[in-house]
Amino acid sequence: MGTRAFFHHREEEQKEERKHSLEMTSMTRKKREKKFYLDFCQLLSSCSSREYNLRREADILELEQRGQKRIRFGNDMEKMEEEVIRICRLLRVRADRKGLCRKVRAKEFLELRSGRAPMFWIPLRAHGVWERMDVTLTCTVLGSPVPQATWYKNGIPIDLRQAPAGKYKIKNRFGMLTLHISRCSMEDSAEYSVEVKNQYGEAYSFATVLVRKYYGKESGFDSEIYKRSLLAREADFAFPLKPLFAREKAPFTLSCYFSSDLLDHQRGITWFRDGELLQDSEGQELRCQEREASVTVPCAHKEDEGFYTIRVPSLDGYKEQTTYVFVRDAAALTAGAPGSPLNVKCHDVNKDCLILSWVAPSDDGGSPILGYLIERCVAGSEEWVQCSAQPVKSCRCPVLGLAEGQTYQFRVKAVNKAGTSRPSKASDPVTTYDASRDKRVTVIPYDEGRTIEISKDDLEDIKIPLPPTNVHASEVREDYVALAWDEPDPRGREPLNYYVEKSLVGSNSWQMVNLEMPANSPRFALFDLVKGKSYRFRVRSVNKFGISEPSLPSPPVTAGAKLAPPPPPSQVLAFRDTKTSVVLQWDKPKDGLEPLGYYIYCRETGTEEWQTVNNKLICSPRFTVPGLQPGKEYVFCVKSVGEAGLSESSPETDPIVVRPAIACPSAPHGFVLLHCGKTEMTIGWKAPKRKGGTKILGYFLDQHDHSEPDWHEVNTQPIPRRVCTVSSLQQGHLYEFRARAMNRAGVGEVSEPSDLFRCEEWTMPEPGPPYDVRCTEVRDSSLQLHWEPPLYQGAGPVTGYFIDLCEEGSEEWKQINKQPTATTHMKVSDLETGKCYIFRVRALNKAGVGPPSLPSDPVVAKTKPGTNEIELGVDEEGFIYMAFEAPEKNDSSEFIWSKDYEGPPDADRVQIEEKGNRSKLILKEPSEKDLGVYSVEVTDVDDDISASCTLTKEDLDKLLKRSHEIRNPLIKLISGWNIDVLEKGEVRLWLEVEKLSPNAELHLIFNDKELTSTPTHKINFVREKGLVELIIQDFCADDKGMYTAQLKDGKAKNQFTLVLMDEAFAKVAEEAEAKRRQWKKKQGPHFIENLTWKILENCEVLLTCKVTESGLNSFTLSATPLKIQPTEEGIKIYTDVKYYTDYMKTTWYHKEKRLESRDRMRAGSTMNQIWLHILDPTEADKGKYTLELFDGKSSHKLSTDLSGQGELKKLKGSICSFPGRARVVQGLPDVATIMEDKTLCLTCCVSGDPYPEITWFKNEKVIVFKDRYKMDVKGSVVTITIEKVCNEDTGKYSIYVKNKYGSETGQVTISVYKHGEIPIETEQEIPAEITTKKPK
């Protein structure tokens, strides 16, 4: 208080000093002007006399000369010229006099301002504003040098970075200080002060801002507005705005819905993003309908992310809602590529260059960002040109080579090892211009808006320009050094260009760096400096007359100084906020430069994948993370963002469960008199709208006798119910009541006083009003209404209830039910979706209908997003259940189940289980006794969370059937037993069931005995296909009987039986025997009867068997003529036969010469084919080929001819047509010559899949690559290099490529000649260091 009084006293003293100073200044100024005028006249007279004499002599001399030339015109011409000269002289004198006056006054003003302590010329003044209005505090300050200003609120400095976005705007223009406070709230009522100080002193000014709240009719004014409010109810928000998750490059629409039609005065809706007003434009479309307002962004960018606020005018001021719109990264063009940069901005714009800055993306794609690519285009076109040849490593870079007067846009792409990101949003259009022109050009207005421009350059007669001055490095980065200098003064008329020279520190040699591209503006950037070395720079000016001397060298500049990323934040803490949001706060990094902003990341506990929370920078160290899943547990971390990129991650926060923060409850409301005696009253009220995230523990009630001034407590201990009987009252007196709710966080705010109730005993015969009318299970067209019966019964018990409905904004009540309902609940259907309704209930007894209840709270007939219904089903163990999952739930919340809305179901018939946000009601022994309506509610939450489900007889039968199937499951049969007789006479018995698990079991029973897999009875059980098969090798009478497959898979089981007897068995056995005989016959000679033995009478042993005839003669008839087939390796000659055995002899002949199997000729056979394979066929392989077969009795011959030239070429072409065959596709010249001591390079292209083996030969000998011989393989290009060729290198070189599909050779003959010799008969001479290639 002492300090504040001191400042006020000092402010009063300053006012007196200022008043006295104004008076003294006025007197002094008059004296000075008078003295100055006398001195100036004397000076002017002395100066003008000398100048006048000189000019007069010059004019007389000139007139004499002119008179001599123009003597024939006489004295008239001379007089006119003298008059013109006189007038011109007077004009010059007046102009000089005015210019001198201006200079003297300017000098006096500068002397007056220099070295002055700050003072307030116009101080701050107090303001009183309405809530949600803007206010601007303004003051004017004088001082030299210009003082620095600091604003305070209640003695605390105002920090724009910590304040809400757009809350404060501070300006300092030409000594006028302004503080703009937007959308004032009650918290903005405070004492504001501004401190100004410079090196000569300091000054203070104070003002109070009072924010008033408008209370409607209670305020006592604006009666006309209040009358209008009685005619129609204002529209309110139907639902709170939910966070919106959009995708980059995709459109999004943020919509806000209202409870009723907007009134005329509410249509001035405004939208804000991060505190900035949004206007309807191409980038965003604003719409307003009767019950909806929306903002649409047709193509979202990361810059569109932020807090969106809608402001709706109302009679009380404004109503607002705010939500956050997230813009996720678009899908990367390449997997693992980073996200796109953002906030591309242009700085320091000149004629041919500018500085571009941007912000690094939050997602690096999983690998560090290596750099950024900059692209530009002329505004209005879509042709983007890359500006930088190499990626730029920092988030700031100069752009050179621009055209003066051209309008450009820029965008940036991020690059990592996986690829390139999508481009950023294009920058705002920027036009290059001469930044120093305004300093050199004076604009003189005249004649109603016209102007005259006078350029300083036109007055300077400069030929060869002067050197620039103040050469220095404006920016030093890892990639570049940006230079800046001042233009020479005087500059001259001609356009200037600049050449930049550099020199290493310690060296006297200078090197020009931009000879081919002179700079047009006093800015230039160098990109290729050696890191770690120090340089000095100087600049020369050049115009059409010549080049200037070099400027003074700049201070030493060390290139390649790497900009370090900012350090990560510390002390990251997470706090509960709402059911879908968490508040994060952290400490700013203490070391290094202050970061540009922060990125937040989160992950759900139990997962490893981090999700980006924001793609747009957050500037303040506090943020509310919305859009989280209620009840889930999360971990958070934060990264700082700087010009060099992103910092390391901060330490992770402790895991936090997303639940509302515990707070004190709001005030109760809706007081009603339920019963009244002579000296007591029973009061009821409604629960608070906000319960504070925990259970309401009780209420405190106060009473007030209207004839007394004070309020009195009714209870000192909290009342758990919302009904209280107040006794010891005075009959006939008027009383009002108020209450406060209490939870674990404390006692909430007190409610508004109730209406006045008179304490008179009720004797009416009708019942009293019902109370606690509330709505649950609100859906698009229906809801469930509940109420409590009246406490006053009247002349008899209550026999029923009537329900009335009223649309919000109307005063007309409509009775819903024609007949009274006997229960205290009722389902209301056929509601209009989106409309707001109010309900009330009246009780009925034999005396009549009593007074209506207090109306319910307004409710909108619309299903809220995320509403869940009761799930009816059967679990894995076969129990019938009803489950409900709450979208949100507090620590103290409970699931309240009821049956037919009459109370909880019988505990002997149901079992209730809870886990997290899910509650499960299990029917122990389901029967018709369990039929009915089951409902569930979640307690201690602000919004209604409830649902119901009707269990009918039909539903119960289906569930019981499903329960039986689960408890006694059967394996499903797809195909029953099938019998197949295979080619060899084997019998296959098989069946197919549904897919089984790996733990499934099979028991195959045959005639009451379990079979196991043997060579003669092979059992196959393919579980993943559900296949069971039994293969019997020799099907006989022993296999007659019943086959049963018993399957078991977990609880599921089944068995399937096959009866194979009598006619069915005989049919299968006959077919199997026939196929067995046929198969053996196909196999050639075989035993019809097996070997048996018999003892004869003479004691000899007779061994007998029966075989088929050999049938070898039939072989030649079954052999096909020889066929020719091209293969991957060469040519195949073959014949197809029915069967072939080893004792048959085969011989191949070529031109009557017997062939042996070797490397190029391979003979072979299979059971059905005899073949000869010719590898890499040549011209020598042409001719007649003969195959000789010998069956033990005679020989048989088959022949074919390869003599045809066309046929062999065709076969070779077929061989080469294999796509994977090794080939020399672009080969070598046939002959080439080269001079001694030169370097020979032979290059060719090869192909093949798989990639072929490569071998080089010299004179048919393998080349060993060492010393002078080197081979290089790059993809399909193969190069051999021979250094310093000599005469020994003359010879035939060839390349041999080979893979599994074939081979090919390319050849070239090299001739080496000596110096001075002329190569003879050469096809091509190879210049040194030139690669040889031969066209296709």
Automatic annotation (TrEMBL):
Q: Which UniProt keywords apply?
A: Cytoplasm, Immunoglobulin domain, Repeat
Q: Indicate, by first and last residue, each region the UniProt record lists as having compositional bias (Basic and acidic residues).
A: 8-22
Q: Do you know which CDD domains this protein is assigned to?
A: FN3 (cd00063), Ig (cd00096)
State the SMART domains in the record. Answer: FN3, IG, IGc2
Point out the coiled-coil segments of this chain: none
Where on the tree of life does the source sit, at the highest rank?
A: Eukaryota
Q: Where in the cell is it found?
A: Cytoplasm
Please give an example of a GO cellular component term from this record.
Answer: M band
Pfam families membership: fn3, I-set
Q: Which Gene3D superfamilies match?
A: Immunoglobulins
GO BP annotations of the record are: sarcomere organization
Under PANTHER family, the record lists:
MYOMESIN-3, TITIN
The protein in question is named Myomesin 3
Query: What is the species of this protein?
Result: Zosterops lateralis melanops
